């Protein structure tokens, strides 16, 4: 068990802030792991060039060894230290979306530890739009590997309290920087094929990417389970993901048909995950995660709502089905995975 230091960077003086950043960078340079907020979710940051440091990330999360990590940089030029084959589109996309919730997969030149890419010849790179994360990357002068700061398989953390629940005793330090702005992980775009391909949807939408590069494909694993023998483009897609302890069932259809279904099937321990304002219309206890038409808000609140349902002791959760337009695709992707793709079409 490690003695996890929990420090808030909220409302501190400039001098205190600089001290926190310097301390985090020191811990990272010494080969250990620090949890930091980014604009998407909190991440577990460590030196991407050190095999031992990267191993500590995998251990802290209980993450399968074949699921690669994203490398975080603070300056676009640093991508050239990680890849000798950066396509022209990468520059255009970075100009538009970096720093921001956007990750690009390019050919790796092998300079970071092999374990970061889990044996793949490619590497995922992102420049986060979070002052704390950027300052720590700059202060450590290293490319930093960082997955979401949750125990593998559970919902990603969107607040420092979530990280504390999952990571106390497992890492050296947690920095509290408040709630994450987007609440779902970055869009992951592969640039290694003929046409750019979204492997994981996020706050940077397919349409926004299309406007820069002309064409974009969406990997079929985004809204469907990957079958036996299917070669996955992103190993992260294989695993049960984002799931609370409760069983989640997504019910696709109108509010009326949702209410009818729940009335017919309800048992003790059932909860609903619904849109704002619907709570009182449902026959079971409910947690809401944003207005029906507000995908950005749903993204921001989804993981927190899933964690809250566990705290309330939910055994089974009936979830309303979000729209899959725009950022909604990311919300659907995470919720469908949390449900193990148990999605029922109501008539
Ligand atoms: O917003 C984010 O991206 C957050 C914050 C902390 O930056 N990070 C994050 O990391 O979500 P993680 O490890 O939870 O998810 C990384 C995803 C996984 O699905 C992984 O399989 C995929 O990116 N990935 C990483 N490297 C890859 C590669 N070379 N090829 C294909 N997929 C890759
Ligand atoms: Mg994750």
Helix and strand succession?
Answer: EHEEHEHHEEHEHEEEHEEHEEHEHE
What is the mean predicted local confidence, pLDDT? Answer: 95
Question: How much beta, percentage-wise?
Answer: 15-25%
Strand order of the largest sheet: 1-8-2-3-7-4-6-5-9-10-11
Which ions, cofactors or small ligands are bound in this entry? threonylcarbamoyladenylate, magnesium ion
Number of strands: 16
Backbone shape: globular
By helix and strand content, what is the structural category? Answer: alpha/beta
Quaternary structure: single chain
Helix content: 25-40%
Distance between the termini: 51 Å
Could you tell me the radius of gyration in angstroms? 20 Å
Outline of the structure:
The chain is an alpha/beta fold and 347 residues long. Helices cover 31% and strands 19% of the residues. Helix 1 crosses helix 5 and helix 9 runs parallel beside helix 10 (328-338).
């Amino acid at each position: 068990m490690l003695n996890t230091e929990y420090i808030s960077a909220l409302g501190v003086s400039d001098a205190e802030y600089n001290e926190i950043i310097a301390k985090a960078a020191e811990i990272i340079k010494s080969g250990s792991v620090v949890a930091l907020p980014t604009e998407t979710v909190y991440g577990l940051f460590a030196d991407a060039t050190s095999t031992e440091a990267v191993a500590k990330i995998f251990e802290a999360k209980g993450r399968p060894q074949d699921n690669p990590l994203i490398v975080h940089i603070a300056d676009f030029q640093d991508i050239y230290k990680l890849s000798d084959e950066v396509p022209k589109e990468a520059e255009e996309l970075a100009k538009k979306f970096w720093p921001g919730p956007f990750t690009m997969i390019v050919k790796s030149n092998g300079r970071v530890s092999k374990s970061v890419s889990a044996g793949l010849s490619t590497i995922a790179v992102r420049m986060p739009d979070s002052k704390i994360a950027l300052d720590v990357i700059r202060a450590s002068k290293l490319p930093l590997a960082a997955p979401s700061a949750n125990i593998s398989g559970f919902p990603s953390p969107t607040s420092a309290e979530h990280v504390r629940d999952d990571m106390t005793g497992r890492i050296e330090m947690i920095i509290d920087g408040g709630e994450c702005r987007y609440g779902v992980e970055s869009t992951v775009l592969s640039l290694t094929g003929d046409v750019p391909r979204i492997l994981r949807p996020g706050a940077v939408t397919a349409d926004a990417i299309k406007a820069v590069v002309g064409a974009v494909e969406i990997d079929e694993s985004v809204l469907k389970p990957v079958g036996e023998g299917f070669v996955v483009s992103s190993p992260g897609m294989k695993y049960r993901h984002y799931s609370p302890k409760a069983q989640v069932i997504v019910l696709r259809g109108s509010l009326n048909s949702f209410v009818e279904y729940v009335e017919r099937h309800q048992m003790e321990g059932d909860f609903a995950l619904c849109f704002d304002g619907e709570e009182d219309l449902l026959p079971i206890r409910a947690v809401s995660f944003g207005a029906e038409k507000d995908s950005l808000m749903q993204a921001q609140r989804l993981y927190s709502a899933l964690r809250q349902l566990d705290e309330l002791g939910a055994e089974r959760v009936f979830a309303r089905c979000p729209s899959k337009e725009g950022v909604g695709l990311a919300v659907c992707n995470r919720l469908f995975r949390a449900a193990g793709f148990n999605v029922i079409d109501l008539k």
